[in-house]
Each structure stands twice: as C-alpha cells, then as structure tokens.
Specification:
The complex is a heterodimer of chains A (126) and B (125). Chain A is mainly α. Chain A has a domain of 67 residues. By secondary structure, chain B is mainly alpha-helical. Chain B has one domain: Up-down Bundle (3 helical TM bundles of succinate and fumarate reductases). Helices cover 78% and strands 0% of the residues of chain B. Chain B is elongated. The termini of chain B are far apart. Classes of the chains: A mainly alpha (126), B mainly alpha (125). At the A-B interface, helix 2, helix 3, helix 4 and helix 5 of A face helix 1, helix 2, helix 3 and helix 4 of B.
Amino acid sequence: MSLRTPLGRVLGLGTAKDGTSHWWAQRVSAVALIFLGSWFAFLLATMPGFSHAEAVAAIGRPLNSILLLLLSVSLGYHSYLGIQVVIEDYVHAPGLKVITLLLARFAHVLLVVVALFAVLKIGLNA
Amino acid sequence: MSNDDRPLSPHISIYRWPITMVLSILHRISGIVLSVGFVVLVAWLFDAAAGPEAYTVFMSVMDSLVGQVMLIALSFAFFYHLSNGARHLLWDAGRGLEKSQANQSSWLVLIATVVLTALFWWLAS
C-alpha cells in the first residue's frame, strides 16, 4: 500500500518538490559548457597578447562577444547549481543555510550581470 | 546494554581509497575552484571594459607569482572538470559503469587532464 497521493505520484516531484529539474539543469548547462568552455580555452591560448587593446579587440569581435555572453550565462548558472549542492551538503543550521544560499545566488546573479554589461559595452563600442 | 564493542564499517580515514573515490572528490574541489575562476573571468571582462588603468592593475596581479600559480591551478581544474564531467555524462547515459571500466576511465581522465593542460600552455606560449 502506498501512502502517496495520486496527485503526488503523477507529478513525480518527490519530497524536494522539484523532481529531477536540478539534476537535469546541471547536465544541460554542462553540455553547453563543454563547447563554450573549450572554445574559450582555445581563445585564451591563441590570443596574440594580453595588452588592454588586444583584450578589447578579442572581446569585441562580434562572434566572440556572442559566445562570451553565452559562456557567462551558462557558467554562472552551472556554478550556482554546483555551489548550491555544496552548501546544502555541508551547511546544516537552517538559518545559516538559507542565508548562505541567498548570498551565493545574489553573488552569481551579480557576476553574470557584470559580465554581460562588460561584454556588451565593449562589443557595442567596437 | 552496551554497544561499545560492535564492529564499525570502514570509515574514510582507515579506508584504502579507490581511485574513483579520489576523482569524485576532486570533481567537487575543482568545481569550487572554477567558481573562483568565474570571478577572475568576470574581473578580466570588467577591467577590460573599465579602461586601461583598471586593466593594468588586473594584469599586474595576474603577472605576479601568486597570479601565475592561480592561473596554472585554474587551468588544471578546468581541464580536469571538463574531462571528468564528460565521463559523468557517459555514466548518465548508462555507459562505462562496470567497476573495471570506471577504474580505467579514471586513469584516462587523469591522463587527459595533464595532456590538455600541457597542450593549453604550449599553445599559449
């Protein structure tokens, strides 16, 4: 005999109320980052130099700008999902846990917005 | 009723670590390191957008010994997390889950990490 309600069973969301969505989001962003991360490593490795002018030229090239925007969003998202699990695993005091999770989320949103702003500023100026 | 002499299951400190366990822990550590790396990436983008003065400060930190060691550590963490992450995706697809396969792919991940990191710095030089 199952104590689960018919609605609970059909939604399939379990006790955490979000089913496999966290796990799946982590995989989707991981696949995106295989491509975007490899591209970025290649970009860095083949930069002619790291002077300010060379950096701005590289970031501002249209294709690079677009890929950097995608990288920033995917990386910020994937990083948050990972840090969230680490916090949930090691921080047990309920109050501290909520505060740490909130700070981690705010920090990631801030980082992504700064990255998007910087890339757009350079990309649209070029 | 005393339970003091009941046997304990092997704990981390007296366990001969299987290689898969080491790589699993390294995956989490490298992930945390790469979150720090994200901050460095955003600082690079922001300082490039902010202008030559801010950018010079950023580059002087990166050119220092601490900065260089950090960049090398970041590159190792990146290629490790990439290689081992690809292995995780194969596992998610139900492949390579036999114990012998997992042990073999562990070594493959470590070799790929060293090769890709070396290739990266060779390309960059």
